Amino acid sequence: MVRLERIKRLQADGHALLEIGGILSGPAAAKSAMEPPMAWWQHGIADDVIVRMRDGASPWRTKQLRAAVEESARRVKPEKKAKG
What we know:
By secondary structure, the protein is of the alpha+beta class. The protein has four helices and two strands; from the N terminus they run αααββα. It is elongated.
């Protein structure tokens, strides 16, 4: 009950739940909770495989990552069954 009361008090002080989670987890967690969200690109390379990459990489790094994703997609591509 003490934890719940503290959460209610922090909300009443105007803190968002994300901030409260960081506050209750300690100083390091509170700092990371306050960092702005990052944009991510999501690439489906097979029916059961998704690759996520953070947006904002340099053009050189983006080219490397794209090549790696394309290679991975080729490797996990399902084989077509022969008719007959």
